[in-house]
Amino acid sequence: MSAEPAYVIVGASLAGAKAAETLREEGFTGAVVLIGDEQQRPYERPPLSKGFLLGKDEKSSVYVHEEGWYAGHDVDLRLGVAVRSIDRAGRRVALADGSSVPYDKLLITTGASPRRIRLPGADLGGVLYLRTVEDSEQLRTALHGGGRVVIAGSGWIGLETAAAARHYGCDVTVVEPEPGALQRSIGPELGEVFAGLHRSHGVVFRFGEGVSELRGSGGRVSGVVTSSGAQLPADVVIIGIGAVPNAWIAADAGLDVGNGILADEALRSSDPDIYAAGDVANAFNSLLGRRIRVEHWGNALTGGPLAAKSMLGHQVSYDLVPYFYSDQYDLGMEAAGLPEPGSYDQVIYRGDRESLEFIAFWLSDGAVVAGMNVNVWDVNDDIQALIRSGLPVDPGRLADPGVPLGEL
Question: CATH no. for residue 140?
């Protein structure tokens, strides 16, 4: 082992890139090796289903850093090479090209992969997923000029790609086994708001139905058969049925895993010299008092730097209020907290839902546990403060636009 310590980051993602940046900002002078299996340097994923997919953002805008940043900050960026295994006893990472990299401390930021559909016809051309830059480019080409699009899943990816498909003039049908949109993410109340938004733009929903079969002609998809027996013509099928954490490398190395890599509030895994951040980490959140695995941009943006500081020996605590945002048609929103069904007993609105300018608050025992501002801006910090307080609020004052959120 060299005199200078070597910190290795597996996963050239947003979380990985921000961790490397933080190590240098904090004065770490040892080796920093950032390894990714994609050919692209680290980039941000939200534009892939938003501005980049819509053709509004240039490809250059998605990257975390300029191309020369890594060499300029003495970060050894290795792209297009997969990690094969972690040798914890030998403190080395084995790569698929046969080489290996020694580490003193290791951070895993390998993210998640789209959940694959396991059905007849799943390998037909025109059956698309969205995770990478190349996926977004392929989907944009497929949607351009219109056509018939069937989307499996009404989560955030499903709805954002539905908005993009309508932008390009496609006929869009969304097939969803749940009784409504975004059921597992934000519950039925706000899920219906988003479903109504899409219906007003011509999207057809088939709730309570799943995809049973994909049919094709000449090697390309031509239709979808649903669990009800309905046959839907399709030129493009988008699969948005969730994501699976890329935790296999940790599992193979004997680390504790369970819906991701299990980590403590300092983002340490069951091996004190191996850390995890971003989509792959199922970390203990000291604010919420439980482990959470969050697949949102905000978690990667803040989790990577937090893990880097933890690797450097700083006392850190993963106490972030989960944050995410979405843009669909003329609707922009930010959300804080995790308003999953079962986590709240009341929803209160401030503003006008009909005009889609409002704030929604999810409450449990009178305290705000999550909030979403829809086409209302500069309030998310106040919403997060309400969540952090954990104190009961007056529902009438919470719903009154005349009462500043900071005074509740």
Answer: 3.50.50.60
- In the three-class reduction of DSSP (H, G, I as helix; E, B as strand; rest coil), residue 316 is classed as coil
User: How many domains does one find in the chain?
Assistant: 3
Does residue 324 fall inside a structural domain?
Answer: no
Question: What distances in angstroms separate CA 227 from CA 206, 215, 270, one per listed residue?
Answer: 10, 14, 42
Contacts of 262 (CB under 8 A, 6+ apart): 255, 256, 269, 270, 282, 283, 291
Residue span of the structural domain in which 102 resides: 6-113+244-311
Same-domain check for residues 281 and 294? yes
Domain boundary among 241, 268, 283: 241
One domain for residues 230 and 282: no
Residue 41 resides in a domain: yes
Task: Tokens for 45, please give them.
Answer: 């994923």
Domain C-terminal end among 280, 311, 342: 311
- Do 130 and 176 fall into the same domain? yes
pLDDT reported for residue 5? 94
* CB of 349 closer than 8 Å to CB of 373: no
State the residue for tokens 């009438």.
396
Tokens at 109, concatenated: 């930021």
Helices marked H in 270-379 — which ranges?
297-311
CA distance 119 to 124: 11
pLDDT at 2: 47
Q: Could you give the CA distance from residue 392 to residue 107 in angstroms, rounded to a whole number?
A: 39
pLDDT less than 70: residues of the chain: 1-3
Q: CB count, 10 Å around CB of 142?
A: 20
Q: pTM of this prediction? A: 0.95
Type of residue at 185? S
**CA distance linking residue 280 with residue 299, whole number of Å:** 11
Residue 287 corresponds to which tokens in the numbers above?
Answer: 């604010």
Write the CA distances from 354 to 350, 351, 357, 375, 395, integer angstroms.
12, 9, 8, 12, 20
The answer to whether 149 and 198 have CB atoms below 8 angstroms apart is no
Query: Which runs of consecutive H residues, i.e. helices, occur in 169-240?
Result: 183-200
Planar angle of CA 284, 287, 293, nearest 5 degrees: 40
Is residue 205 located within the same domain as residue 235? yes
- Inside any domain, residue 362: yes
Do both 151 and 250 map to the same domain? no
The answer to whether residues 335 and 186 touch, using CB atoms and an 8 Å cutoff, is: yes
Note the pLDDT of residue 4.
Answer: 83
What is the distance between the alpha carbons of residues 63 and 257, in angstroms, rounded to a whole number? Answer: 30
